[in-house]
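Input chain follows. Return structure tokens only.
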Amino acid sequence: MGKDWYDGCMEDREWRLNHLYYIQNKDGGIQRFCMNWAQRELFERVWTRNAILKVRQLGISTFVELLGLDCCLFNRGFQMGIIDKTMTDAKSKLLKMKQAFEWMLYPPSRVVEDHVEDPADREQIAKLAAAIARGNENPEDRAGKFKQETATFENGSSVRIGVSLRGGTLQLLHVSELASVAHNFPRRAEEIISGGINAVGKDCIVISESTHEGGKYGEHYRIIKGAMENQGRTLDKLDFAFYFFPWWRQAEYALPESKTDTSELAEYWLELEEKGIVVTDAQKRWYYSMWKTMGSAMKREYPSTPEEALANQISGAIYGAQIERLRAEGKLSCEFEVDSMHPLYTAWDLGMGDYTAIWLIQPGGDGRYYVLDYYCANKAGLDFYFNKIREWERRYQLITRHFLPFDAEASTSRVSTVTAAQYFAQAQMPYCVVPRPADIWHGIYAVRDLLPRCIFHQRCSNSIVIDTNEYMSGVDALEGYKTGGTTAGGVERSAPLHDACSHGADAFRYFAQAVASGMVGREDVRRREAGNPILQERRTENDQKERASGVPWWRDVTGDMRSREWRNKTSGRPSWW
């Protein structure tokens, strides 16, 4: 026997995986399988729950199918499941397993790559593989039978596939491209997690592998984010271990003979170096050539860092181009203070038994809009949000006006005739209802026009944690706001999708509509007061009273409520103020 044999090798799964099975490579040729760097890292680190964020074409799904085949052949009663975004994709994975099994019975005649060099060793391994695949000495028998959607083995093991598996017990579950499912079919992604992943025993294995899409939202992002946060700590068996396999670790992603000039991406190479990633000129030429073809999709399909993968532009993103530009200009995570010479505004999306989202925005004297803060929560009454407004006013300054959606003057529930607008009036919150546009896309166009003039504070990029519930940031909501994706039949939906992102996006849209309609005052309230000693004295007096009593400035000295109509009449403000 040559170097490919040793005592006990047949009991060694690593040896079996690297010697018994053949695969078809990306060029269509047949080769004996041997783990590459990514497959080996997964094999050596494999945990009970595994979340893999990766680039394309690393052979992870091929490895998992061979691992499943090996487990079925060498373990009695082993149960494996394969979940993919479509049944066609799931069937193709089962077909890989079937093909590898067939090549155990009948070794392929033309092998383009074989790391077993000794002909005698190859012959001996072929005989051993055939005996395992037949299960006994009868050459007509087979240890496994494959159908379109299942595989069964004479030792009681089996494989089943689907777009969502529920019921039964599984020792190994392979979930492929969960990000695509979560992005296009969020309810099915929830079913995969509740009915598939959660049904796998804590001592069994789940391998979820996917390139990422959908931005910082959805079930796949939630799993990846949790796995990333698990790094560096001792994992429980139900915790996901995190793996990231970038393009620059794959040796074949290089063009050593090319002389392409890659200076167009010089800033990107510098960014990678600042993160400790040094790529060769050959790798730069490969990346540049792919980038010219794929454009913005390059960072989704071939990310350099996990952060890059999660921040990629979302397919169907309504404000994707504007957010990407703001990020490139460094305007999404800025630090700045409130300018006391300019008024503050909020814009709301109201959902009494649903999400409510609020933006805090200050127009600047330079023609820009400074987005100071964002807040959202779920299943809370208006008093809960009014407390947040008072907190903002204590932290920043008094808010001039609250922009409400067009349905704020409708009844808030079937059992109450009190409208949201009336709640605002009773709480002495100066509000204005933004008229309903003829088409939602008119408001979307207003946002697209406004965003290039916006600068977002770092707070707007931070997630919001209330008790034990975590909500996405305002920037993530804008970035994740998208059209409805595709139906199961492949038809594109053009209408915006109503999901957790739409609340923050809708609230921002109401502010953009208010700006476009001239409802955001261009007069500088603080500057006007600074030039008028009487108004300045009144402001100082009101501020002192509010600090002493907690009574907002729009109450009179007796504490009685002043109506919006009275304030408008006596101040000369327009009727919609």
